[in-house]
Amino acid sequence: MAGTSPAMTTLKGLAMTTTDPLVSTEWLAAHLGDPKVRVIDASFKLPGVLPLPKDDYLASHIPGAVFFDVDAVSDHSNPLPHMFPDAGQFGRDVGALGVSNDDTVVLYDSGGWVAAPRAWWMFLSFGHKNVRILNGGLKKWVAESRKVESGMVTAKPGKFSATFDARRTRSMQQMIANVASRAEQVIDARANERYQGKVPEPRPGIRSGHIPGSLNLPYNKLFDGATGTMKSLDELKAAFLGAGVKLDAPIATSCGSGVSAAVLTLALYRLGVENPALYDGSWTEWGAADGPPIATGPA
Known about the structure:
Number of strands: 12
Shape: globular
């Protein structure tokens, strides 16, 4: 499953060829004025955590950044939180943020690696390859005393045509079949106490535990909490191997609701894993009272 990363693209006119989806604060600072670079704040928090991500954005964001609302850019007909929308809606929603198909998109979040990888995976899943994540996010940007601004940024609408690549996500039906076949390794990004079922889930009515046969690698082990930057490739590889993951075999990632799982997806992508699929419904779907059988305890 390892191979050439789909991110191996040249950012035309931006003097940058890379296989790594991360960009540095220095690179972004040098390209903030480029008319073909679209900067997006994709910060996210669990329900009930205040202030809301949108309020944080309004108080302080990178100049010119628009706000990507993970809950808004989703399938509103599905009762599960922020499920992938269809291609038509994604195209309309990101077009309204000023993004066109020939733009380079740079995503960031507050620095806790919670949602920028989710938005990045959505862009890739809907056919946009020129998408990057700011390494360290707003946390590193501010720590370096770089300029920020407040208030809402309203972008001139862009034209974005999206095509969905279903290989990049997994449904519950596919995940149930995988419990029997074990064709794909499943890696759970939640904290170990949640994975083992030792603590209640943050969402009411959700059982505690994990998908039978899944492995556990908490997403916060993949970045430096002090600087907000993602760990080196060697450190990432060691973390996955330490969790029992085989990097040359198929992988699907999971978490609480399909957001922090994308941190694992991003790290795997950086390591050359070709298509580490994401279980969109994640534990909010699987752990529902009427959901499939669960497991508890260590892996």
